[in-house]
Known about the structure:
Order of helices and strands: HHHHHHH
Amino acid sequence: MTRPVSLCTLAVIACAFTLSACSTAPVAKPPPVVAPTLEELMAKATQAADTGNKAAALALWQEAAAAAPADKQPWVRMAQSRYDAGQYGEAILNAQEVLVRDPADKLANSVIAISGLRLSTRALADLSRQNNLSGPLRAESQDLAKLLRESLGETVLVPPPDKPPVRASRKQPSKRTADEGSANPFNALK
């Protein structure tokens, strides 16, 4: 025998269905975050560099390098910025990243060469001040200097400072004449 369903039971079942429908309503998803393009990142970095915010510019160039790993431009800008700031070790590292992407890049090779020379010059000056530039280290330094002179076609790598030109002192002609001793003050006007 089947039991008749009571009105109260039907009301409870209807409420359960209604409540379960509310909990399964679709939740609106936030719109997907669109990553900035390489051009946008480079423009923001350039603007930051132009306003003097070098740290922000470097962070944006690093973000651009991560966004476009095959592009050399973020690395070129980082290398140049580091070189301009006198951070020669970091400039060399950034320039090497440029050369991984473009082995013939002249700017990157220049940054590496000049930064390396500046670091070497500092180290040699420190060694010289400490009187530790002797023996094989001195001989190797001289050989490298000779190679550098030959590469540049120069006989002297660091010329002595130019002496300022000697100016010939021209004496202004005196307004007084030989007739100074005379009592006539108008003789000088003649």
